[in-house]
Amino acid sequence: MPMMQAETLNCPNCGAASSSDASQCQFCNSRLATVACPSCFGRVFIGSKHCQRCGAAAAVAESVEAEPRPCPRCRTEMDSVLIGATTLRQCLKCDGLWVDVRSFEKICADHEQQSAVLGAASNMPSDSASKPNKVRYVPCPECAQLMNRLNFARCSGVVVDVCKRHGTWFDRDELTAIIEFVRGGGMNSARAKERLEIAEERARLRQEQRTLDMRQSGSGIGMGDDDHRVSGIASARDLLKFLLD
Questions:
Q1: What are the residues facing 62 on neighbouring strands?
Q2: Which of 49, 108, 164, 221 matches a 20 to 30 Å C-alpha distance to 38?
Q3: ∠178-180-186 over CA atoms, to 5°?
Q4: Are 79 and 31 in contact (CB under 8 A)?
Q5: 234, HSE (Cβ side, Cα atoms, 13 Å)
Q6: What is the domain extent for residue 171?
């Protein structure tokens, strides 16, 4: 479904004009939009019936009781909400989202399945997502360990903060960008790239093995003549066998 453009709407509190993708009124600081799209998890202007990004029907974000957790980015307490069938935590100060491991896996699987059934959409991540001015490693809200920064699928261009045990932190609009990437067939592209890299690595190892065998054959080295070189050959063979299995 084509992405819908931001509209100019009026703040329900002071009446000032504001973009439909703004989360706060720049004049009275009233909350204008919250994460309420169960399809792309985009922020929806309060009072809107449909998501301004993907056109899906907006859902009411229901509060869920949960242990308090600090926002990794600004350290304020996050709200735990149920949007559609997904429970996540959102920070109303920086508009970031925290999604646990199982929920994120399901989000990706569901949207990849939709992409396969409906056909890949043309939408891909844009550069419009708000990014922190300075890269900073942030702690997992569950275990407080600093998270790794990873380029999702290694080729999406969306760099997120990941705790492998507990979940993923998305700065504003990053989860939406990833969903657009998945819907656009990005996972297939990522798998094709990975297969190509594996094939290239196998070819490199085969060539290295042939070179080592030629050197051993030409010099007449036995198994006990040069322990270092024989160990190197064994290591290369073991690695090649591992990749080819």
A1: 82
A2: 164
A3: 75
A4: no
A5: 7
A6: 61-184
